[in-house]
Amino acid sequence: MTALTIRQIKQQSQQWVNASINSAIPPFWLTDWLLYVIHKPSIFLMTNDDYQLTEAEYQQFSAGVTKMQQGIPLAYLTGKQEFWSLDFKVNEHTLIPRPDTEILVEQVLNWINEQEKSRSITKQEDAVTSKRLLDLGTGSGCIAISLAHELTQGSTGNTKANVAKNSWQVVAVDVSVKALEVARHNTTVNNITNIEFIQSSWYSELSTDCERLFDVIVSNPPYIDEADEHLARLIAEPISALSAPNQGLADIEHIVQQAPRYLRVGGLLAIEHGFDQGAAVRQLFLDNGFNAVHTVQDFGGNDRVTLGQI
Ligand code: GLN
């Protein structure tokens, strides 16, 4: 196999994009993969058309293109995905963080911010009140880590929401030991120190003792309908993180029904769901005693996150 130049790769890329078994590969995947393989910044692709890949680089690049054509996402080839301006390791045991899930993080931070403003508690009381947040089905840990980063690490240049710093404890659970390994790793690399990880099937290993209750429960559970044709294209990620019975609502229903037992009075439940599940999820919240129930849309204008207070 003769290693190609960047110019030749550019010329062939459309062909590779289209030669996928599923839908076409996003073209930026090829570019990002090439940059990853040759360890260069993106400007290099504009200024160095004549650069010829080494044999080893070209072999790695081609093998990756073949995998993408077979439906393996870029993030599993590079082993990482950015979320909330932080870096996350991902592998086949975890869902790849989606940009739309940042809306869930943002909504939770906005709610906490509003609560802290409206309670108008003194700074002294603030410091001694320990708040607790639970992330159900944490996967790579991206939600729990982003929230812990904002709630406990002090203000950084990246801070996207201005939340009063409080004494927050974050608990993150997942049923998968392999996913928890990834989440723990991501906690360390992002310098987060205050997340407690528990292997648990949703609430199964959590206590309902009043001092262990939560102010916030957040979750991005599996919600794709088992019959959804979109699922056929998601062949690489764990099915247990993607799809649920009962038109995709089975896990959401369990989480909503049980949440009142684990929330403090006035606590928030925030759940990501499918674009066509807004009405059903709001009804579940209402049936289980939540108020101020509302749905927020994603970047594409689809219903994506429902929130309610108990
Ligand atoms: N939003 C993702 C998708 O449709 C799925 C995430 C999930 O099931 N929680 O690809």
Describe this structure in words.
The protein folds into 2 domains: 6-78, Ubiquitin-associated (UBA) domain (Helicase, Ruva Protein, domain 3), CATH 1.10.8; 83-309, Rossmann fold, CATH 3.40.50. The strands form 3 sheets. The protein has a 7-stranded mixed beta sheet with strand order 5-4-3-6-9-11-10, with helices on both faces. The chain has a two-stranded antiparallel ribbon with strand order 1-2. It contains 11 helices and 11 strands. Mean pLDDT is 92; it is low at 155-160. The N and C termini lie far apart (63 Å). The protein is elongated, with a radius of gyration of 22 Å. Helices cover 39% and strands 20% of the residues. It has 310 residues and is of the alpha/beta class. It has helices at 6-18, 27-38, 43-47, 55-69, 74-78, 101-119, 123-128, 142-152, 177-189, 250-262, 278-287; strands spanning 80-83, 86-89, 130-136, 167-174, 195-199, 214-219, 224-225, 243-244, 263-272, 291-297, 303-309. The site of glutamine has 9 residues, from loops.
Topology of this structure?
Blueprint: H1 6-18, H2 27-38, H3 43-47, H4 55-69, H5 74-78, E1 80-83, E2 86-89, H6 101-119, H7 123-128, E3 130-136, H8 142-152, E4 167-174, H9 177-189, E5 195-199, E6 214-219, E7 224-225, E8 243-244, H10 250-262, E9 263-272, H11 278-287, E10 291-297, E11 303-309
Parallel strand pairs: 3-4, 3-6, 4-5, 6-9, 7-8
Antiparallel strand pairs: 1-2, 9-11, 10-11
The structure holds glutamine.
Glutamine is lined by residues 95, 98, 220, 222-224, 234, 242, 272.
Short summary of the structure?
The chain has helices at residues 6-18, 27-38, 43-47, 55-69, 74-78, 101-119, 123-128, 142-152, 177-189, 250-262, 278-287; strands spanning 80-83, 86-89, 130-136, 167-174, 195-199, 214-219, 224-225, 243-244, 263-272, 291-297, 303-309. With 310 residues, it is of the alpha/beta class.
